[in-house]
Specification:
With 122 residues, this protein is mainly α. The chain contains five helices and two strands; from the N terminus they run αββαααα.
Length: 122
Amino acid sequence: MAERRQLIRFIEASVEEKQRLMKKDSRYGRVICRCESITEGDIVDMIHRNAGARTVDGVKRRVRAGAGRCQGGFCAPRVMEILARELAVDITTIVKDNEGSYLLTGETKVPTLLTNLEKATN
């Protein structure tokens, strides 16, 4: 039976351990969730575990990103970007908790007047 990897919680590490982690992986130096002080390294580590996070709420349950005062108002978009990048999927396929709980459903930008004028003249 394979031995379980030690769980790394950056916020709970000593100063020396934090410096070692940041030297090994600079993502531990980027705070994603300000409320809970969760780093990109914490999130990436949790995604790549055997039963790793695959959803926004999966990250929230495992490392608490999005569980603080703002309830993900600041960090949820970054968590989605990290999930999409690390899982090599399109960000529109990332769900909140389970199949069908999509957070992105399409483009939100309305074409500008200039874009419409350009199309009309062509």
